[in-house]
Design brief:
12 helices; Serine Threonine Protein Phosphatase 5, Tetratricopeptide repeat; single chain; 36 strands; Neuraminidase; five-stranded antiparallel β-sheet; about 35% strand; disordered N terminus; alpha+beta; Immunoglobulin-like; elongated
């Protein structure tokens, strides 16, 4: 698969190379003849050349052809011999080779190391910081694919499938027209051409039909195609070649996108009017196209100026007559400092391959679902679709969940193979919502929200955001029972049962919590604080009463629209009129204290003493009661009129 890097113009230049000691190996490497370069570097290393530059290039020669075991050995030598001089990119590649040989625990360690040393602008820092054991999470994802190797695969490279008129168009190195005479020095394989295969009725296998159009296939590379919705226009990737191979000022032959138009000649389709797309350049590569279902947008990859990483995914509007809008980078949600490749757009999602998002090794296939024309965060589609090798060029019929993917995993027939797959959708839900104050409906930030299974096992925890919103990262099963708890200091915690929706998507659960100081008694909202004590026959607010009244002040500051009224009550002991006057003085003293703490007077509607006229038990005059029974009637009440 590593030769596909050429098909996207990924010609990596690592800064800081000095003149290496082996000119033959360097010359081969600079010409990207990596098979022969690897042999030459091995010879140099055995001869005692263990310079940093030689070890880097020796590792790269294997890495670019996906020989991960050999690349791992050379990068390991590099890191052990030059621990303080290794660039972050080589730490990243070393970690990639560890994933390639399925040494995931060690890969996790080195990916953490990479995230510490990478530049701040490198978007892979966050992806590979691995604060949680996310590689294990990907490995343990519930499988949703069944794969089958196709009959068309050969000992060489076969990849890049695309649907065409109910058949499969794909790129292969085993084109009999050129296989015996022309080989590509990068990987010592024949150049790629396009062929058409017949898809079996079961959609699980493909057999060879014919070589695709001679007007499109040349003696150099052609691969990675897409069609307009009516299949009358083809977009395809080709070397910068139009009768003559063109190179940039570094001597590199880049890739370009071309289009052609179908012409029906007596029932036989002829592809004519082959032309370059106007945003091509001799100075950079453009390739791997995918047309949106409505035919209005063309997605592709490039290393053009403005690229975030090695290769990024771009999009243009198709305006007709070989006119397009300016290319737009899809941004850092999709693109990273690594490689984003092989986009495939449907009306539901963008699928692409990447080694810049966390995966199982090499390129992994990711899905970024579409919502209101916005791409969501990419998710790894997991094993067995992805492996420790390169997995890429994913296409799918969203209605049947049948499709094809390319991979160079060890179980294949050759270099890159094409596999058919059936995707068995896993019904998953994300639980999200907001936390709000049940009294005034205001959103509550920084509330702790915990997700539990129906049996009470903790599954996830998060905090509500500035607008009270929350979302759990852990997907849960559809049509299943869970419990969600919301809590915050100063509020009564609640636990709410929830049944998730029956189809994949989101379950919205808003959580209303109330302040611990607010209660509802007989349909009336009240501020509940401790007992307000006064000295015998006195109405002056005591220090211990101030502590309780300050809670009222804090609550009224928290709810600036709150209006209250104050009621003071006594028990039945002492004279009725005396109790009435004393309780009224205490109510007004209470009011005055709250106002003295900065609460506007108009926010206290009234402060009235009711003496013993509103007893809440039967301890009236002449009825023998205990002190505890009388105590119930001695109370101050703060009734909420308005929130």
């Amino acid at each position: 698969m590593k030769k596909i890097i050429t098909l996207i113009g990924l010609f990596i230049v690592v800064a800081g190379f000095s003149q290496t000691k082996n000119k033959t190996a360097d010359a081969l490497f600079d010409k990207m003849e990596y098979v022969e370069a690897a042999k030459a570097y091995e010879f140099a290393i055995k001869g005692g050349d263990n310079s940093k530059e030689t070890l880097q290039r020796a590792g790269d020669s294997y890495y670019f052809n996906n020989h991960m075991q050999q690349a791992n050995e050379k990068y390991q030598m590099l890191i052990s011999q030059y621990p303080n001089e290794v660039a972050p990119e080589y730490i990243f590649r070393y970690a990639q080779t560890l994933e390639g040989i399925q040494s995931y625990d060690l890969a996790k360690k080195w990916l953490k190391n990479f995230s510490k040393k990478a530049e701040a602008a490198d978007t892979r820092k966050e992806n590979f910081s691995l604060k949680e054991n996310t590689i294990t999470k990907i490995i343990n994802l519930e499988p949703q694919f069944t794969l089958q190797n196709l009959s068309i695969n050969s000992a060489y490279s076969d990849f890049g499938p695309m649907f065409y008129k109910g058949q499969l168009l794909y790129a292969t190195s085993i084109d009999s027209s050129y296989v015996s005479t022309r080989k590509y020095a990068w990987n010592d394989q024949p150049f790629l051409s396009l062929q058409l295969g017949k898809i079996s009725p079961s959609q699980t296998d493909v057999t060879y039909l014919e070589r695709f159009s001679n007007s499109i296939n040349t003696k150099y590379h052609e691969a990675c195609v897409t069609f307009s919705p009516d299949e009358n226009t083809i977009y395809f990737t080709r070397n910068n070649y139009n009768g003559k191979l063109k190179r940039d000022d570094k001597g590199i032959n880049n890739l370009k996108l071309y289009s052609a138009t179908a012409v029906d000649k007596g029932g036989k389709i002829s592809w004519e009017n082959v032309q370059e797309l106007p945003f091509n350049s001799d100075a950079y590569s453009v390739g791997q196209p995918s047309v949106s279902k409505d035919g209005k947008k063309l997605y592709f990859i490039s290393d053009m100026p403005g690229t975030i990483g090695a290769t990024d995914i771009f999009v243009v509007d198709i305006l007709g007559e070989n006119k397009y809008s300016q290319p737009k980078n899809l941004g850092e949600k999709i693109n990273t400092k690594g490689r984003e490749m092989f986009p495939f757009i449907t009306d539901k999602a963008l699928y692409f391959a990447s080694d810049g998002h966390l995966g199982l090794g090499g390129l992994d296939v990711f899905e970024s679902t579409l919502k209101d024309t916005i791409f969501n965060d990419p998710t790894n589609l997991g094993a067995p679709l992805n492996s420790n090798k390169d997995d890429f060029a994913y296409i799918v019929n969203e209605e049947t969940n049948l499709g094809f993917v390319s991979s160079n995993r060890k179980t294949g027939k050759g270099d890159d193979d094409i596999y058919s797959f059936e995707r068995i959708p896993i019904c998953k839900q994300l639980i999200k919502g907001s936390v709000f104050n049940e009294i005034n409906q205001e959103k509550i930030p920084q509330a702790t929200v915990i997700l539990y299974s129906a049996e009470g096992m903790k599954l996830d925890q998060t905090m509500s955001g500035i607008n009270g919103e929350y979302q759990f990262d852990t997907p849960v099963d559809c049509n299943a029972n869970y419990k969600v708890e919301a809590s915050k200091q100063g509020f009564n915690p609640i636990t709410v049962p929830v049944v998730t929706q029956s189809t994949s998507g989101e379950t919205i659960l808003d959580l209303g919590i109330k302040s611990t100081l607010i209660v509802k008694e007989n349909g009336v909202l009240k501020i509940k604080i401790g007992i307000i004590y006064f000295d015998l026959n006195k109405s002056k607010v005591r220090y211990d009463a101030e502590i309780e009244l300050n809670k009222v002040v804090l609550l009224m500051n928290e709810y600036p629209n709150m209006i209250i009224k104050i009621e003071a009550h006594t028990d039945s002991r002492a004279n009725d009129n005396y109790n009435l006057i004393l309780s009224d003085k205490r109510a007004k003293a209470t009011r005055d204290y709250i106002i003295s703490q900065g609460i506007a007077p108009e926010r206290i509607e009234s402060a009235i003493g009711y003496g013993e006229t509103q007893l809440i038990n039967n301890c009236k005059n002449g009825v023998p009661c205990t002190d505890e029974q009388h105590q119930v009637n001695r109370r101050s009440e703060f009734i909420i009129i308005k929130m």
